[in-house]
Amino acid sequence: MTWQVPAAREPAASPRHAAMTSPTADPRLNPFPANWPARSGWMLLAVYTAWAAAQLDFSWMRVVSGLDNLERFLARMFPPNFTGDKWDLIVKGLTESLEIAVIASALAIVISLPVGLMAARNLSPVWLSWPARMLVALFRSFHSVIVAIIFVKALGFGAIAGIAALVVASVGFIAKLFAEAIEEISLKQVEAVRASGASFANVLTYGVLPQVFGRFLGFCSYQLDSNLRNSTMVGIVGAGGIGGTLFSAFQSFDYDFVLAILLCIIALIFAGEIVSGFLRAVFLDNSTLSAWWARRRSAATAVVRGAEE
Amino acid sequence: MNHAADIPGAGREWHRFTPEQRNIRFACYLVGVAALVMSLRHLEFAPEFLADAPAQVQDFFARMWPLDTAFYGKSVHAALIETLNIATLGTLLALAMAFPLGVLAAGNLVPIAPVNLLARLVLVASRSVNSLVWALLFIAVFGPGALAGTLAIAFRSIGFVGKLFGEALEECRPGPVDALTAVGAPGASVFIKGVWPQVKPAFWSIALFRWDINVRESAVLGLVGAGGIGMAMDSAMNLFRWDQVAVVLLTIFAVVVVVEVLVTTAQSRITCGAHTF
Questions:
Q1: Which residue of B has its CA nearest to A157?
Q2: What is the 3-state secondary structure (H, E, C) of B21-55?
Q3: Do B128 and A270 touch (CB under 8 A)?
Q4: B41 touches chain A (CB under 8 A)
Q5: Is the ipTM of this complex over 0.90?
Q6: Is the peptide bond before B111 cis (omega within 30 degrees of 0)?
Q7: By the 8 A CB rule, do A281 and A292 touch?
Q8: pLDDT tens-digit map of B184-232
Q9: Is A84 left (phi over 0), alpha (psi -120 to 50) or beta?
Q10: How far is Cα A109 from Cα A104, in angstroms, rounded to an integer?
């Protein structure tokens, strides 16, 4: 897409003349020509949308009748029900979810380190990296709720099944990214450590890990966050945590309790995001408590100042 | 003559981190281990379940074999198409809604801090509710079926797409925008010709990435009644037809692999285009 200014350009005699020979008339003078492939792509997308909406039997009537329901639904949701035994159920469920997330993350971190090292193609021989990569791909391909169903069958109802399901999902995530990070390392340091006569274990601890350990901890903190979210969901299929409480509240149309549970889950997830952000600041940016606190305070004052303007 | 004494700083001990950095790292490790120990001690679990796990797993796989391949033609195929439609329509709906929100969240395009903050708040709210919960909410409103599933996928994706698109917009170079403003182009033209070409690869890359995630997520929405292949799996599970469940699982696996390959190839082509651009 090269646009060249024509060599001989007639000087515009008057503004009126210039308006008459508008630049779009001459394709060489049009810097923004119509992009027909893109336009036909948009049209195809519109056709697909209409076709798929018809396939799924969407209609305006359903939306309108739904909006009618929405009003009743919202009316029954408010005010959220935090009273007595309901609150006890929330606390019990959230504690279990939190415990599932912590244990699953810890196990996943321990398992991902060797699996990630095995899956890195620049460190491991093919007979080791290939099966490890297959394992990671298999772990990644199922949603954690589906994995939870399988583990509920194998290990029975309860938190153990949830932990196992989240471990599988987390190993799939951490080990994949960790292996990719190792594949990007500089081999000079590895070479140097190896040249000094180091054993394989020493090459790993002094040549490889220092280059990727920060990123590894970063992936782990992301996964801790994600495990916290998913640990509130695996209960829907009976794998422990607040999800079971939430699902039964939905099924018994106990919508004010549903709202209370949702608000608590969102609060927990927010807290988790702050914790994992703090961990990333400490381990990736070498931040300290005072530096982190100062940054958050300056960000908060910037927002407040912006709102005042 | 003692050479070591001549070298400046010879007697000093060198550390990679300052004491404050070391302390906070140590505190993080300590809190992590304490949380793990507390969780392990507090969590109730029945060891007898673990004892018969191998037998259960064996039983599980034994019941899956032989696969009920006739089940694929009977109900899995239609459910699979429905799942793909839910994922794709949900993604498109999310793109349509996330586009304006992403623009509003980008501080360089809309330099009004309260508007940015409000847009980001909406995006965070969308992200912090899981798609299964969105599905439950929409089922309560619209009844079970694909409509609830599509809306669940769309509302969960808004936050993801809007956040990443807003960040891409904020990384725009101001040069083309300034140039177009300087020649007197109206606001819409400045956006279409100055900003959009810069963020187009990022936008489609984000859309493909989210589509990939949505195909996986829409496969489970059926478990709560929001349509798609999860419903076929749920009914097979309720009847303890593990040979049919296995067919569904294999189908999901195949589709996820195919979609991932498609998305990876398309993304690498998009980013290559961005480099030559």
A1: B49
A2: HHHHHHHHHHHHHHHHHHHHHHCCCCHHHHHCHHH
A3: yes
A4: no
A5: no
A6: no
A7: yes
A8: 888 888 888 888 888 888 898 899 989 998 998 898 888 888 888 888 8
A9: left
A10: 9
